[in-house]
Each structure stands twice: as structure tokens, then as C-alpha cells.
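Posted in: Protein Modeling Q&A

I'm a second-year student putting together a small comparison for a lab meeting, and my supervisor asked me to include a predicted structure for carbonic anhydrase. I've never done this before, so apologies if this is the wrong subforum. The sequence is pasted below exactly as I got it from our records. If anyone can share the C-alpha cell output, I'd also love a short note on what stands out.
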Amino acid sequence: MTEIDRMLAANEAWLDEFPGDLPVAPAREVAVVACMDSRMPLFGMLGLDVGDAHVIRNAGGVVTEDTLRSLAISQHVLGSRAVVLVHHTDCGLNKATDQEVADLVERTTGHRPPWVARTFTDVDADVRESIRLIRETPYLLSTEVRGTVYDVASGRLREVEDPAAPHLSEARGGSLQQGQEQGS
Ligand SMILES: [Zn+2]
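Accepted answer (user: helix_wrangler)
Welcome! Here is the predicted structure, written out as C-alpha cells:
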């Protein structure tokens, strides 16, 4: 039995938990852009239920053309507006340079990949850069873009301060002023 056979068999157990058919649009109008890391169970660690959010994952949780494609469809076709980025400690993309990744692939297969791996050394800086790339994409409709780093050793999520986003502070100030009406 391969791992995939086990997964196909496990679907039988899932049927007991299956919540039933739900609307295609994510109920909480949020999209999560996250690393593919196997230690981040995004729904559990963010308090999300089935049907609540779009989850866009790749190596590093970096903002690529395809991340932006998915966000555009999430927002324009399916109504999401908030975007939260989830990077994490001990990421595979901290462990090599772009050149080393390309060299490794080429050494093993004889083919140099056409893409850049997008490795990084400073996870907070990469989160801020990702926030900037999403904010500055003119065809998106994001109302709120925030970034976090998940500590795989403790399970704790830390928000990355984004000094380059004064308009976000203003937006948060505004929502605080309305907080009494909204009870938040
Ligand atoms: Zn990672």
C-alpha cells in the first residue's frame, strides 16, 4: 500500500465529518497565502472551518504570478477581500540560495529550471515584501493585507509589523473608532 493508497482509503473516514455541500464563495471573504510546509495545519491554527477561506500555498508562501492569478480569481469571481500571509520559522527556503537550488536541480536531472526559487534569509523582510507586492498589484481589490510568521516549535502565530504601510494604520485606526458600534 503506498501513501496515496492510504490517503484514498482515509477518505472513507472523512465522509463521517463531511459538512455537506457549501457555497463556492468563501464565507469569511478571506484568502490565506501560505508556505506548503507540512507542519502548518492552516484551518486549525487560524480557526477556519470548511468553506470559510481560500488557501493558496507554495514553497515559501511567496507572491508569484500564479499567487496573484489565484488572488484575482478569489477576489473578482468569488468575493474575497482580506489577504493574510503565513510564512514560518525553519522554512526550507531559508536553507539554500536561489543559485544552490538551481544547481541542485541541474546536477540531479541535467536540466536547469526556468524559474527562480525565491529563497530568503530574513523571514520578516520577505513577509513585508509579499505584503507590498499584493498591495501594489493594481488589479486586486484587497481591503486588508497583513502578514504573519508561524513558529513551528510553539504553534504561535506572530504578526509582522509593516512600517511601510501607513495607510493600513489609518485603516485600523478608522475601524477602531467604529469598533463600539460594531462591538469589536
Ligand atoms: Zn516553508
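A couple of things worth pointing out for your meeting: Helices lie at 3-17, 42-45, 65-76, 98-109, 123-135, 166-177, 179-182. The chain has one domain: 21-182.
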